[in-house]
């Protein structure tokens, strides 16, 4: 590898117009995502974290519930394993915050801004790429943890395979498993918006974390107040979709309103991030 | 003369002002950057060069004033990447991307044909390093990658912030050829640098600012000529000459031996004629070429009233 540049440059003016294709910021962000080694690594870590934590959650059932695995129902084993989707969410939040925030940390965002006609496209493209990656990773994790839970239920808990397959394929479990995947996707998107708003990776990580803590604190409030706040927070909305929120509980608002709540969070986050990016000097 | 042949070409800055926390970083700055030549943007550290470039590129909003690239603010163009390419520093790249990946995403974002990526990698001699991560490239290689990115969309204007950092002499020669070639096609080049000696080798025209205000806006040659040049004289007995010059109020700077002196404010031919008239025998007579750095320091260091030292041509249509 030589570090000496050519002394006579080749012709700079090209015969054909170099801008011949339709500009696509989504494709640009996807190229970055695909080319960066860390983003690929974190996707793999997401799957591993999900599968490993599924095994740990099932193996610790005797300690957490005070009953041996052999006396635990297949439904409980599988639902315990699905909790590990939250571990995947933690990794995906880090991935999303890093992907969006590293450009602010390094100053590379200016490379994008000076080529963009408007700044909103950049935020939207980052959100689309992270949303797609998080969806694929979360669904894959949900499948992986269901398989892990099924294996553990059939081996350590001694359940029949026919029963395990029936439970794993039941509407209740599928709703729990795939409804839970909304959490990593929504939190990843909020991490992107947080990274843009605060111009940092840390800001991206802390944004969904603050909402998670907010959900916990809202649970400690009096029922009248909690029933207003909890369904409006992303965690409560996801619990409605996954079926964790029970009718009559403070989180319960139903699936459709919960979906609208999540859409509102995403749209609101995108608008806020775009507004901040437009107002910022670089 | 740095006067635009058309208001729609090049860069036009009018009354540009920017303050941070009550401190005025850019102060009523007005200048034009004409196409067809390489224009250097000079100033000491903290003079406001980068802030000015960022305002021209639409990255920073001006407090007041305007910065037009090809007739309008860059973000208002339908395809800003087609109008201007920029390099703002090797650190402004994602270190985890490959060299190819860096150009790939810019091509995707701007709709640039993929074949152009290979052309640019070849232009900056990074074809063999295309798969290496930016973090693994030397500073000079990263500088060249950034320049390739600036040229990727075949823009009409390129703006480079400190592109000479990290380039070895061969790299500086290469960049000079590149920019001169680019400008010779009728396009516009504006580059900032604090490496004044290197800028002297590259730029045809210089804009110098200090404390955010314009100090000089001249062709480089003109600036050199207007700067007082010194003539070194050598002879066995210079005393009659030096006494005569002192009487005439001309600055002389003899060394301790009395056989060498530097004279400011007279052309060599005038000194020679004077020596003939006074019967002073010279053994040496040479012009001491002042570098741009000396001129630059002279402009930025003298006096408290910076506007008193402004050297510039009037700008057509200037409102400031």
What this model shows, in words?
The complex is a heterodimer of chains A (282) and B (320). With 282 residues, chain A is mostly helical. Chain A has helices at residues 25-35, 37-59, 61-65, 74-82, 85-106, 109-113, 120-155, 161-168, 171-180, 182-198, 201-219, 223-229, 234-242, 255-279. Chain A has 14 helices and no strands. Chain B is 33% helix and 26% strand. Chain B folds into two domains: 11-224 and 294-312, P-loop containing nucleotide triphosphate hydrolases (Rossmann fold, 3-Layer(aba) Sandwich), CATH 3.40.50.300; 228-288, Alpha-Beta Plaits (2-Layer Sandwich). Chain B has a seven-stranded mixed sheet, sandwiched between helices. A four-stranded antiparallel sheet of chain B has the order 11-12-10-13, with helices on one face. A three-stranded antiparallel sheet of chain B has the order 2-1-4, covered by helices on one side. Chain B is elongated, with a radius of gyration of 23 Å. Chain B has 320 residues and is α/β, with parallel strands linked by helices. The model of chain B is unreliable at 1-7 and 302-320 (pLDDT under 50). Chain B has helices at residues 49-56, 80-83, 99-110, 114-123, 139-151, 169-184, 196-202, 220-226, 239-247, 268-278, 292-301, and strands spanning 11-20, 23-33, 38-42, 64-69, 84-87, 157-161, 188-193, 205-210, 213-219, 230-235, 251-254, 260-264, 282-288, 311-312. Classes of the chains: A mainly alpha (282), B alpha/beta (320). Chains A and B meet through helix 1, helix 5 and helix 6 of A and helix 2, helix 3, helix 4, helix 5 and helix 6 of B.
Topology:
The complex is a heterodimer of chains A (282) and B (320).
Chain A: H1 25-35, H2 37-59, H3 61-65, H4 74-82, H5 85-106, H6 109-113, H7 120-155, H8 161-168, H9 171-180, H10 182-198, H11 201-219, H12 223-229, H13 234-242, H14 255-279
Helix pairs in contact in A: 1-7, 2-4, 2-5, 2-7, 4-7, 4-9, 5-7, 5-10, 5-11, 7-8, 7-10, 7-14, 9-13, 10-11, 10-13, 10-14, 13-14
Chain B: E1 11-20, E2 23-33, E3 38-42, H1 49-56, E4 64-69, H2 80-83, E5 84-87, H3 99-110, H4 114-123, H5 139-151, E6 157-161, H6 169-184, E7 188-193, H7 196-202, E8 205-210, E9 213-219, H8 220-226, E10 230-235, H9 239-247, E11 251-254, E12 260-264, H10 268-278, E13 282-288, H11 292-301, E14 311-312
Parallel strand pairs in B: 3-7, 3-8, 5-6, 6-7, 9-14
Antiparallel strand pairs in B: 1-2, 1-4, 8-9, 10-12, 10-13, 11-12
Helix pairs in contact in B: 3-4
